[in-house]
Amino acid sequence: MNMEVHHSSKTNExxxxxxxxxxxxxxxxxxxxxxxxxxxxxxxxxxxxxxDGLAQSWENEVVFMNPPYGRxxxxxxxxxxxxxxxxxxxxxLIPSRTDTRYWWDFIFPHASxxxxxxxRLKFGESKNSAPFPSxxxxxxxxxxxxxxxxxxCIINCSTIIDKEVFNERK
Length: 170
What we know:
single chain; alpha/beta; Rossmann fold; five-stranded mixed β-sheet; globular
């Protein structure tokens, strides 16, 4: 498999680094990967492009979502938020593009946790780091916080460490 295509504008799919996922999975115990291929599925239950994860229910699942990073990402983020209101816990691995509308419409006002990843992840089997920073966004209605009381964390991309909470200055 030619992995060069996974680090160019030729694709919007970025395979999750296995060690990174494994560390997250120890914390969350994921039950669903709604943005998978048969080759890169991270959970026993997964949806492929043909299954259309956007059209499926994620209710009461613990979801790991590494969505396609193209223009359709906004639909995946909206779906993650809406499914969290139905009981799902959704953890999203996404580009840290905080200037985009979906960050302002769904993530900043509704996410229970936002974790900015220090450094750049190496997706798939690539030897090169991604050309963009990444973030983990959690939607969990049981842990929703107000915008003024939101947890913002920074982690090293090679190790998941305890959260550092930055309180907003008054």
